[in-house]
User: Which sequence fits this backbone?
């Protein structure tokens, strides 16, 4: 129980064994590689022998392949999204492959990936070209569209020596004015209205070149917008028909390209597997950067849980007996990574512990101590047996389906918290806001909140006392009996004394207890100070900590408030639903309201309950004994999301 | 509604304030956190889950406000019963009972919203630390919970 002991393992081996050793380590997943390069670079004579960046090229190759696979997957996802529900990711099972199966498959995977890459690159370019073509055609269509009634072939729209031809758009309202002005100008001209669309008139204007200036003067007075068409043959209508055909062709080509992408969908799985394999490779190459390397040897150092050392030593020596292995305990002042070790019931709650961070490797693992309180607090914050049943069912159903370890842990927490909610709801709450099975067994929290407040604070006192006890136990274990008595025992005395003081029958004992403890605290709390005056002064000052205990205690009133919040919201939902009853449509609306309202209430309050239960541990409970500053153990291992690589001994290769 | 006394009107005013002010605080804050969250999700859709929780946090004050408003209506018989004949003092008492969550809820929602936005930025840079971002925002929630507690205790204490 608690925090696992760690040993530092050092391997010295030949470069030729490097890959096999790293394969083995990655597969066992029990060793966290420490960075040796910085440590050794400082040691003068050694540093000259160290090699740098041997893996640069291999690394780049892996990263290039990864970029290709990522491009493939992105491209596939862009055109063929996988429609997955919210739960699919959780329910997905990893494909189990042994190491040798992976090795066998990799050449095929690589080949498929690079084929898909080439296909996709080509399709990508083709699609881009097609899109450009489509835009060009559409623009042209927009240009020609107003002139489809023009019977003159476009190649004939040319100025001759004596006549100037122009196509133009003028606002329909100005057309009559333009004609009148042109007529008045005395120029020889011909104007034909070709088409009118959306308030604009499209006209053909022919004029003698000799009258050019007069015509220009008239035109300037109007919104005369000359249209210049590209050099095309045939009439506008003929060209438009041709355009439509070309656009259809572009569309067909696009569809063909998409169909070719669809053909590659079958490789999605393989691409995902290959990506996993490559990321394993990349991790391995990256880890090499942490080793100290000379031309022909390398030194690897890392933390291994002490329980795993023997197994690892055997596996490594089986590889090659020339490999030097040395194992040592951590030094007195050396920090080692934190790996939790807890009984199966408590292990899931390591999730809650890790949310805050890792404790100091030489201190106490808070997981098991806070678990019972966490579960009870959650139940009190929710306080509805019906909701508890739903949470439990969700958890149990999930445990049947979900395979992922971390998700399973969350589901186990959910089941326990659901159970606690059922109990709390049965004792002091209801079932979906209704008293389904008669009145609550203990009392109704909604009609007697003061009683629940007292219970909440009492639980708070227990929790805080338990936290102090944890500190006391760890101090005793370290042999610091006096510290345990002074720092925990006296505070117990003071707080219990103050509590007894509140009750008339025990007031006298309480008074004496509190007084003795106070004097004790004044005398002991300043013991680390150098002079007598300072000892007394900081002893007196330490009494100020009582405010900390007091405000921590009041914080537990949130148990009451959150419990009531859930109860009152479900009451609100039920009351509103009641108002709708008595009419066929009303019953439908009522059902929708009940289901929707309770789902919402459950979701938001379950989240709140989880967070507030966790907070009571992090702030109020941790305050009593917790020492932070640790680092979670992150062993070198397979980090995959779609395949599960099963070990069968790397020595077979 | 004829002949409704000043007492009951004051009680309704208290209920309205509790729902309104706490709701305004939550609505504005949830909206702002949502904007920040959308920015993060535009870069990395996988962070949706953790930023959504951060967005939901300042929403609870609105619910607390609703809860107190509902309790006032229930205690004064406006829902599920005949409106009680409240004296001016009783009405004022209900009005005051609504104030802690109305004002405490609104202000704490604003403060929590700001913390949650910073939390969203934290998640954007270090997704593995999203638990800590949530804890920071929950520290603010305490004061909304305390305001709610006081409102509820006052409500249950008023004799009708």
Assistant:
């Amino acid at each position: 129980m608690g925090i696992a002991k760690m040993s530092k393992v050092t391997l010295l081996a030949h470069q030729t064994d490097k890959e096999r050793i790293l394969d083995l380590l990655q597969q066992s997943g029990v060793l966290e590689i420490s960075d040796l390069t910085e440590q050794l670079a400082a040691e003068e004579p050694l540093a000259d022998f160290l090699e740098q960046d041997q893996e640069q090229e291999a690394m780049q190759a892996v990263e290039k392949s990864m970029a290709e696979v990522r491009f493939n997957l992105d491209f596939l996802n862009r055109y063929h999204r996988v429609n997955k529900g919210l739960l699919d990711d959780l329910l997905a099972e990893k494909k189990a492959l042994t190491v040798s199966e992976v090795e066998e498959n990799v050449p095929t995977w690589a080949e498929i990936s690079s084929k898909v890459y080439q296909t996709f690159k080509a399709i990508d370019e083709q699609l881009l070209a097609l899109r450009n073509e489509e835009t060009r055609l559409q623009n042209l269509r927009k240009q020609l569209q107003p002139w489809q009634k023009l019977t003159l072939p476009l190649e004939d729209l040319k100025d001759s020596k004596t006549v100037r031809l122009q196509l133009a758009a003028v606002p329909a309202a100005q057309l009559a004015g333009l004609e009148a002005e042109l007529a008045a100008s005395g120029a020889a001209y011909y104007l034909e209205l070709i088409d009118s669309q959306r308030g604009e008139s499209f006209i053909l204007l022919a004029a003698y070149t000799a009258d050019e200036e007069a015509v220009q003067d008239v035109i300037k007075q109007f919104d005369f917008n000359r249209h210049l068409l590209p050099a095309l043959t045939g009439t506008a209508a003929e060209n438009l028909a041709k355009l439509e055909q070309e656009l259809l062709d572009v569309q067909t080509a696009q569809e063909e390209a998409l169909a070719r992408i669809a053909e590659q969908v079958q490789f999605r799985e393989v691409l995902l597997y290959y990506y996993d394999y490559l990321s394993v490779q990349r991790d391995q190459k990256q880890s090499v950067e942490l080793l100290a390397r000379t031309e022909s040897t390398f030194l690897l150092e890392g933390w291994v849980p002490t329980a795993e050392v023997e197994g690892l030593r055997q596996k490594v020596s089986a590889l090659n007996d020339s490999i030097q292995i040395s194992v040592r305990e951590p030094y007195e002042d050396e920090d080692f990574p934190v790996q939790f070790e807890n009984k199966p019931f408590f292990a899931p709650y390591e999730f809650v512990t890790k949310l805050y961070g890792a404790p100091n490797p030489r201190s106490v693992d808070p997981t098991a101590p806070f678990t019972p309180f966490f579960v009870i607090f959650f139940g009190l914050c929710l306080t509805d047996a019906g909701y508890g049943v739903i949470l439990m069912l969700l958890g149990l159903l999930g445990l049947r389906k979900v395979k992922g370890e971390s998700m399973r842990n969350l589901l186990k927490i959910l089941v326990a918290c659901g159970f606690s909610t059922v109990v709390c709801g049965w004792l002091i709450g209801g079932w979906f806001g209704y008293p389904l099975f008669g009145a609550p067994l203990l009392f109704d929290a909604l009609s007697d909140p003061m009683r629940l407040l007292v219970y909440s604070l009492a639980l708070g006192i227990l929790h805080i006392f338990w936290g102090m006890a944890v500190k006391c136990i760890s101090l005793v274990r370290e042999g610091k009996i006096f510290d345990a008595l002074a720092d925990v025992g006296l505070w117990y005395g003071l707080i219990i004394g103050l509590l007894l003081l509140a009750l008339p029958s025990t007031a006298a004992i309480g008074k004496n207890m509190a007084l003795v403890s106070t004097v004790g605290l004044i005398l002991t709390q300043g013991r680390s100070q150098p002079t007598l005056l300072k000892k007394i002064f900081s002893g007196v000052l330490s009494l100020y900590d009582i405010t900390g205990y007091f405000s921590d205690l009041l914080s537990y009133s949130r148990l009451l408030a959150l419990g009531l919040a859930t109860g009152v919201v479900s009451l609100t939902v039920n009351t509103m639903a009641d108002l709708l009853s008595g009419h066929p449509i009303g019953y439908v609306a009522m059902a929708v309201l009940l289901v929707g309202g309770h789902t919402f209430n459950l979701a938001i309050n379950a989240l709140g309950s989880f967070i507030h239960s966790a907070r009571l541990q992090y702030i109020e409970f941790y305050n009593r004994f917790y020492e932070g500053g640790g680092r979670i153990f992150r062993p070198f291992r397979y980090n995959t999301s779609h395949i599960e690589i099963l070990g069968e001994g790397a020595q077979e290769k | 509604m004829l002949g409704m006394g000043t007492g009951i009107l004051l009680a309704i005013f208290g209920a309205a304030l509790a729902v309104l002010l706490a709701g305004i605080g939550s609505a504005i804050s949830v909206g702002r956190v949502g904007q920040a969250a959308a920015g993060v999700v535009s870069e990395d859709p996988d962070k949706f889950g953790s930023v959504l929780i951060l967005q939901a946090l300042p929403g609870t004050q609105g619910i607390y406000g609703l809860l107190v408003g509902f309790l006032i209506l229930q205690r004064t018989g406006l829902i599920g019963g005949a409106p009680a004949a409240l004296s001016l003092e009783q009405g004022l008492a209900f009005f005051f009972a609504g104030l802690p969550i109305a004002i405490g809820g609104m202000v704490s929602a604003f403060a929590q919203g700001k913390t949650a936005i910073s939390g969203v930025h934290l998640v954007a840079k270090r997704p593995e630390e999203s638990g800590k971002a949530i804890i920071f925002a929950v520290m603010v929630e305490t004061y909304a919970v305390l305001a709610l507690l006081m409102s509820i205790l006052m409500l249950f204490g008023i004799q009708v």
Summary: The domain at 158-228 of chain A is CATH 3.30.70.100 (Alpha-Beta Plaits).
